[in-house]
């Protein structure tokens, strides 16, 4: 997650020049104040357009609390594998999420700092290899007390621990969030699962083809997913059966295993592992960018 991207800076300057320049010309010709109101307007527009980068810069100046750092080191395998610079950037991303995202407890749940940190760690994992990215879609999270159904009610038939929405908040149960990082190498992480859906939602439909996969690679990605789903259905995959429910669920489950059991995925599903390395631009076994990729998948 960048403090300031080139596109944001260019847009801010363009808006400032257009708004301020227009007012400066009018003021110079029609008022006794000359171009100064326009110049002032340009500065105001520039500052307003750069509000988030300026806020991120201020947040980045504060160190992450030691208790938070110890939590990451004890529970997040990717963070453990990073060098000093990588850890500093991971911590900065965590701080950005904690500062910018909204977290709310539902039905008496307390949106505790540890629950928020758990979500922030998931976002930082998915974005670490792509520092130019931000998580697509919503930045609002709701914590439910227990499993819920399609109507967001609990009960005997409720079986959802999380649900991501294209428009609206991401819902997670507090217990599943706690469990996600308690056993960080079990390949079962509802936070990573639901966050992965956001890369799919950024398409027209959730079809299991992440929106940032280049169009010319979509067919290769779909062929890979089809083959891997076939393995799941025949009991020849390390992915749990839920991965075969739909291509969108396959991508989310594969993301969980990719980050939590990278060695196992590499050994049993080398093509899938290579495709996910290409997509996330990170080898979670080392915490570094992949040296090379044999995948046919290209990310735009």
Keywords:
5% strand; single chain; mainly alpha; four-stranded mixed sheet; 300 residues
Note the run of SSEs as H and E.
Answer: HHHHHHEHEEEHHHHHH
- Overall geometry comes to globular
Give the neighbour order of strands across the main sheet.
1-2-4-3
The helix tally amounts to: 13
Largest sheet: 4 strands, mixed
Residue-averaged pLDDT, rounded?
85
Q: State the total count of DSSP E strands.
A: 4
Radius of gyration: 22 Å
How far apart are the termini? 17 Å
Low-confidence stretches: none
Question: Which band does the percent of strand residues land in?
Answer: 5-15%
Structural class of the helix and strand makeup? Answer: mainly alpha
Helix content estimate: 55-70%
Give a written overview of the molecule.
The chain is mainly α and 300 residues long. It has a 4-stranded mixed β-sheet with strand order 1-2-4-3. The longest helix is centred in the N-terminal third of the chain and has 25 residues. The chain is 55% helix and 5% strand.
Can you summarize this structure?
By secondary structure, the protein is mostly helical. 55% of the residues lie in helices and 5% in strands.
What is the strand and helix layout of this fold?
Elements: H1 6-30, H2 36-49, H3 51-60, H4 66-75, H5 77-81, H6 84-100, E1 102-105, H7 113-127, E2 140-144, E3 162-163, E4 170-173, H8 174-182, H9 190-201, H10 218-233, H11 247-260, H12 262-268, H13 270-280
Parallel strand pairs: 1-2, 2-4
Antiparallel strand pairs: 3-4
